[in-house]
Amino acid sequence: MGRVYLGRTPAGSAVAVKVVHREYAGDATFRKRFEQEVAAARRVQGLYTVPVVDADLRADEPWLATAYVPGPSLQHAVADSGPLAADAALGLIARVAEALQSIHAADVIHRDLKPSNIILTAEGPKVIDFGIARAADVTTVTATGMRTGTPAYMAPEYIRGQNVTEAGDVFALGVVAHFAATGRLAFGGGTDHGVVYRILEQAPDLDGCPEPLRAIAARCLEKDPERRPTPAEVIEQCRQASTAGIADAHPRTVVSPSGPERVTPGPLGAPGSPGAPGLPDAETRTSRSPRGSGPAAPVPPPSALAAHDPARGAAPGGPATPPSADTSPNPPVPDPLTTPAPGLPVLLSGVGILVLAVVLIAFYLPGSSPDRGPSYPYRSFEPTAAIGPTGQSRDTEGMAFSPDGKMLATNSDDGKVRLWNVADRKPRATFIQRDRVGNDGFGGRSVTFSPDGKLLAATNMTGWLTMWDVAERRQVRFLGTTVDGGERVAFSPDGKLFATGSQTGSVNLFDTGSRKDEILAYYDQEANVTGVAFSPDGRTLASASDDSDSNLTPKHSVRLWDVAHRDPEPYGQDDPRLTISPAQGVLSLAFSPDGKTIATGSYDDKVRLWDAKTGRQRATLGDSYQARVDHLAFSPDGKTLAAPAGRGLLLWNVATRKPRAILLTGAQGPESTVRDVAFSRDGRLIAGNDAKHHKVYLWKNPKESVR
């Protein structure tokens, strides 16, 4: 809905200033609802809520300020230190339920209760952002057909568009309870549509949640809102269930010089540190200058970019960059980056809130989910250049460097494949995916160059494959749905063969040199093929799937086929050399340059490494992508693995299995998400596309693993 700044009142009190995006500010219906919700939020008073201290609802960019609360969010405490102990979780849920009592007493419904909106402090949890989500609901329901909120925590009646009551917040509390005790979501991860389906149609998966918290969560997660307990009943259940008594079961964060340690139970109001700086839910922008008492720097607009450390940041009403070892009473003031955003003076009205712009983050926007994972405590890098716009469509689905690194090909939903000069970022050619009778294709999918760079192949969602001669700019091959051209394509390392994968589950092998539609071999994947890749020696073809067969039997797997074993009959080859069966559907796969490892990306936001010879899982690279892993790529030297991470790319050190850097686009706004990734053949450049802004960003590959 907007941006959040860390600010201070003239008396030095820290506040979180939330400034509404212009796209919402210009909507009269939104403004009226926003005024109503802010007025209601001001009436909320309670031990475990964060008060609204001021607002200007008539400004060009309306804003409100809430008290700043130091401490990590529950989301990041669990991500960093693991689930809470049973009694600590019971104490937490009882206090959050008490916060809901305070919120509901003011005739406010939170609508977006989730771990990132619960800040852990020495005085207990603090619930933030109550009621504000409703202001955007009118606008977003009309524009997108989806309600505002985070799908994994939405009650069934909210999803269906029915009347929302306090029971909807209790449902979210049940999801929070399960997450606090297990670190997992009660209705799983993956696509929003998949999560919504499970909320509406399936029972929650509460495996691993200890009793009696499991029973409490189960009652909160009843489909029928009338059967859910009230917050008061939840508090009583927690009180009766806690062996230590909820007054003494209180998660707090212990602070050490190296950062927050494991969250442990401790007495309410125990003396000690007020909490460690929490990690924000979206990417942060921080900038520091030498300490001094000079005038405040102007506020940078969202587009302002600076070198930053995502380990520090601010959540709405919550964690922000503290003075750390600095004994100065005020945080360091950043270097002036740009002039203030129009309509946003440095000294805001009301109580005179001074916006220092020490921290700028993007808080929740419809279409993005802050709870996808924490920000990253690793050095970040901004792009060196951008290519685009890559088309009038919503997404750039496929992307590939030419073997010499001089060109970049993009495949867009408008059915056009564009060729760009990497050096000057200007377009060199546009290829149209067209069948033999002149019909244009749509819904671009894969695109790839042949190893010698002479051919360019692209697929689309229609199931076509089109191939062009790059030098002559002419179409040389077309495979339609009659031969199952497919949606995924890969060339063999010697370029003599290419393979396609389709939604029907077929993986087909073709002779690159032939201009006939003859299929050399069929391989049966049995479900929607999401990726195909040849091993570096060309002897093995790997295919991946993310779906079920016609009988709804889960078929997500990676199958390795012996290229020399060819059966030209349809679906004739159904005995792969090796089958890898991850627990989640596979969206992407890649061979390491030495051919010993296969990397897969899934709906659950994880990348997994597998032994290509035995199929045994070697490692899971984190749970912090903030996005499904549609694509991934090894660097040419095999030392780095890159995968999408929200508004950027995360780089992993393959040897240590640890992240070493994050590459950020700097883009803001809903659905601003990187979907694809590619390395240039020399490994010096990395490309990632922004599906929202129709651009491809280029970064120099950072060689240093700096924390």
From TrEMBL:
Pfam families the UniProt entry points to: Pkinase, WD40
- The secretion signal range is none
Q: Name one GO molecular function term.
A: protein kinase activity
Q: What is this protein called?
A: Protein kinase
| Disordered: annotated segments | 242-338
Keywords from the UniProt entry = Kinase, Repeat, Transferase, WD repeat
Q: Give the source species.
A: Streptomyces antimycoticus
- Comp. bias intervals (Pro residues): 329-338
Output compositional bias ranges, type Low complexity: 265-280, 304-328
* Residues annotated as domain Protein kinase: 1-253
Q: Out of the domains of life, which is the source? A: Bacteria
- Residue stretches of each WD repeat: 389-430, 579-620
The protein's matches in SMART domains, at most eight in alphabetical order, are given as: S_TKc (SM00220), WD40 (SM00320)
